[in-house]
Amino acid sequence: LLGRVFVTRRIDKAALGRLAAHATVDVWRERLPPSREMLSEGAARADALLTLLTDRIDGALLDRAPTVRVVANMASGYDNLALADLTERRIAASNTPDVLTDATADLTWALILAAARRLGEGDRALRAGAWRTWEPDFLTGLDLCGATLGIVGLGRIGAAVARRAHGFGMRVVAWSRTRPTAPGVDWRPLHELLAGADVVTIHCALTAETTGLIGARELALMKPTAVLVNTARAEIVDHDALLGALASGRIAAAGLDVFDTEPLPLDDPLLGLPNVILLPHLGSATVGTRARMANIAVDNVLAGLRGERLPNCVNPEVYDLI
Ligand code: DGY
């Protein structure tokens, strides 16, 4: 066997079986994530960790886990890993890109459509008996055909959202730091994008530069009829500024799949607003996608335990040190 792996939650059975064929596997079997203490205890016995975005892996934890040499995060985002701390300790880390692109782009569209066409309000109105008759102005929303979609962060998921937008007859503009191109997408400076878009959707990674990227000033640039969707990371959009913009009608609606604190506390004022659709971080939540993510994380753990380069390494500079 190649070593000992701490898997911080139950994941796809077949993927776990593949891992168990080559390594000793400890699985955290509870529904809720291991506490910091339990995570540290599991890591202290392990050569590799297979983690989720709910597990914070940093220097303090790794100092108590000196045998760990691989951390495979079962997510595309890896802001839960203190990457510099890992690299410094010669630990290679990986994510699971590509396999969740379509699922996340689809869910983004579910939120765009739901927020633009007021599906949450409609569902609640019907259940509350507020649907009295067909009325010319009852729950009228935003026309998407002919409208402009503004994509903040044109990576894999942003580009997949753009491809779908063309099917809805939308014009697509995007802002990305690195100015990549995609068919039928025009680059715009961020402030110009915000001012011109009817729908703004967030797809950049959470980094020091993107934390608070969309604050009160940026929201104030948006059209009062505009919709904001975030399926990336909550911290990119300032929570209080968004709350204020939605409550005052400064923007029309929002669709959110991610929150500063997850699960979203039930006393968060967002829950009191009619014009926001709230989902419990479902971007990649399809059966097939989650199985593919688990298998990719396993591939990375096995490569690391074999002393090979991780196929989806997110800190390749570590190989200059090893
Ligand atoms: C990710 O992969 O980063 C998502 O947030 C969960 O799939």
What would a concise description of this structure say?
The protein has 322 residues and is α/β, with parallel strands linked by helices. It is built from 11 helices and 12 strands. Residues 53, 75-77, 100, 283-284 line the site of (2R)-2,3-dihydroxypropanoic acid.
What structural category characterises the helix and strand content?
alpha/beta
Backbone CA Rg: 21 Å
Q: What coarse outline follows from CA principal-axis ratios? A: elongated
Number of strands: 12
How would you describe this structure to a colleague?
The chain has 322 residues and is of the alpha/beta class. Helix content is 33%, strand content 15%. The chain is built from 11 helices and 12 strands. The strands form 2 sheets. It has a 7-stranded parallel sheet, sandwiched between helices. Helix 1 packs parallel to helix 11 (287-305) and helix 5 crosses helix 7. The two termini are 22 Å apart. The structure holds (2R)-2,3-dihydroxypropanoic acid (DGY). (2R)-2,3-dihydroxypropanoic acid is lined by residues 53, 75-77, 100, 283-284.
Spell out the blueprint of helices and strands.
Blueprint: E1 4-7, H1 13-20, E2 24-27, H2 36-44, E3 48-51, H3 59-63, E4 70-73, H4 83-88, E5 92-94, H5 101-116, H6 119-127, E6 148-152, H7 156-167, E7 171-175, E8 185-187, H8 190-196, E9 199-202, H9 216-221, E10 227-230, H10 239-247, E11 253-256, E12 276-278, H11 287-305
Parallel strand pairs: 1-2, 1-3, 3-4, 4-5, 6-7, 6-9, 7-8, 9-10, 10-11, 11-12
Helix pairs in contact: 1-11, 5-7
The protein binds (2R)-2,3-dihydroxypropanoic acid.
(2R)-2,3-dihydroxypropanoic acid (DGY) is lined by residues 53, 75-77, 100, 283-284.
